[in-house]
Backbone:
């Protein structure tokens, strides 16, 4: 069933764009696009095979409302079937089973706005109000400067949800700007405040970030809530090309609840003559541990998205090669260099039409029980997506 709040957001979002009779589309420069997606996945756990099936639909509507004024909204609906009750013990070390017992998470149907914002652009100033994208950072998988919507490390290119914010950006040149953002969360004191400056220098893109947000301190047990604590973060990133090799580096220093730590990500990619893409990225997490066992609070923080990893050192590698015009074969791996565990992810992509994609991903976790990726789980998913476009912008 539709949740009242989510339905209201969707209705208001489309009303915001002036969802008008067909005669108005050309005048507003309205564009309607989207996709239909179906995914079937299965994985093997200690308690047998699990099947999860979902349908996902997304509709994007953008419009020019006047000179220097535009708006954009995307509504998403996702329906689940199969083993939608996920037991936590299937993804935790055996010695933590008594703590979670029968604890589980249910995959409920979702209806939400992926983004919904209005843009005002008088000259060099750009103001954006609404649920927008604050996706920063140069790294491929691990972005220390990304404070709100971290990537899924097993599929880093998949779309992410926006963040409700008010932001202002001033252009200082073709590739230079400064930006400030306010992310409402409770009162003004607990709301996120960010400043970012970006510049292009001798072939490299540089950025600097200063942010104050409020996060919860890591809980000491699975059922103990904690208070919001101020987190201060400074950092930045650099990316460019050296002798045909794409390179990037990103780092932050943070202070939160009497804990101080550094996060860094360094990587590069290279494309061979036959189109083969090779990519390697290393990540250091100052909040992590070099080896297991990890505490229950660390596992909980990782599942909730508060920690990017349990280990201090991770490595991500990718190799992919196109075959003809339609096929792409790939293999990626994510490894914890401290506890020796890893995930292997083979993939096959097939684009048999201009607007139809198929993707097959397998995955196999390898490592000792208690290691970050040592759940001894394997499985796969098959995903199909069909794109559509109506009322194209003239």
Residues:
């Amino acid at each position: 069933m539709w949740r009242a709040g989510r339905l209201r957001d969707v209705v208001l979002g489309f009303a915001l764009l002036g969802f008008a009779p067909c005669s108005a589309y050309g005048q507003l420069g309205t564009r309607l696009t989207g996709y239909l997606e179906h995914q079937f996945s299965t994985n093997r756990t200690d308690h047998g095979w699990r099947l999860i099936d979902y349908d996902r639909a997304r509709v994007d509507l953008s419009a020019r409302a006047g000179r220097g004024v535009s708006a954009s909204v995307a509504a998403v609906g996702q329906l689940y079937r199969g083993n939608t009750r996920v037991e936590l013990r299937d993804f935790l070390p055996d010695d933590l089973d008594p703590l979670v017992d029968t604890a589980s998470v249910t995959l409920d149907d979702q209806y939400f706005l992926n983004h919904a914002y209005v843009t005002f652009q008088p000259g060099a100033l750009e103001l954006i109000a609404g649920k927008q994208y604050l996706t920063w950072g140069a790294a491929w998988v691990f972005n220390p400067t990304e404070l709100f919507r971290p990537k899924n490390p097993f599929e880093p290119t998949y779309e992410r949800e926006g963040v409700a914010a008010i932001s202002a950006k001033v252009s200082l040149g073709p590739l230079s700007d400064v930006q400030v953002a306010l992310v409402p969360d409770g009162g003004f004191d607990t709301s996120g405040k960010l400043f970012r400056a970006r510049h292009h220098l001798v072939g490299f893109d540089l950025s600097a970030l200063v942010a104050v947000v409020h996060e919860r301190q890591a809980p000491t047990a699975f059922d103990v809530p904690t208070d919001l604590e101020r987190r201060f973060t400074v950092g930045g990133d650099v990316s460019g090309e050296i002798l045909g090799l794409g390179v990037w580096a990103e780092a932050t220093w943070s202070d939160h609840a009497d804990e101080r730590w550094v996060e860094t990500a360094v990587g590069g990619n290279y494309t061979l003559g036959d189109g083969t893409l090779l990519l390697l990225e290393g990540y250091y997490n100052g909040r992590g541990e070099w080896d297991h066992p990890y505490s229950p609070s660390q596992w909980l923080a990782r599942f909730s998205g508060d920690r990017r990893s349990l280990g201090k050192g991770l490595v991500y590698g990718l190799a992919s090669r196109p075959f003809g015009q339609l096929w792409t074969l790939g293999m990626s791996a994510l490894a914890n260099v401290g506890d020796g565990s890893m995930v292997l992810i083979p993939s096959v992509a097939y684009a048999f039409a201009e607007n139809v994609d198929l993707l097959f991903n397998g995955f196999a976790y390898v490592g000792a029980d208690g290691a970050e990726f040592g759940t001894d789980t394997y499985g796969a998913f098959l995903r199909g997506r069909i794109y559509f476009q109506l009322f194209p912008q003239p």
User: Anything to note?
Assistant: The chain is about 10% helix and 55% strand. The chain has one domain: 4-390. Residues 1-27 have pLDDT under 50 and may be disordered.
